[in-house]
Amino acid sequence: DLIPELDILLSSESHFLLGRWLSEARAMATSEEEAALFDVNARNQLTLWGPTGNILDYANKHYGGLVIDYYGMRWSLFVSTLVESLNTGTPFHQDQFNKAVFLVEQGFIFNQKKYPSAPIGNTTEIVKKIFIKYYPHFAKKRSL
Description:
This protein is mainly α. 66% of the residues lie in helices and 0% in strands.
């Protein structure tokens, strides 16, 4: 639940929007072809930083849209691969995982998905909901 909730929270504030980052990159272009290239490059800069993940996560950001569609997908693949490894009693193969996650990462860079460039939701209300959901859990742990 945390990754989708973080993404919703980030998406409620204009300074944390992937769509804003991508729109600003596209706005620098002089043609639609160039705008598409700038979009891919802007995604790449935040994620792989090169064609093969040369400096992976070097310029990572917590942007609404990026958290759920990039980091969330990576975490999901990691956890499912790890659970499968534990359930079958087979070793976790980092090299195989790296190849699989690279496909996910490239998929994000080239998916051409449009992201909102204006905030969605009320940040204060979203924080209240998250606080009400998680505070009892942490308060209980502190009292033990």
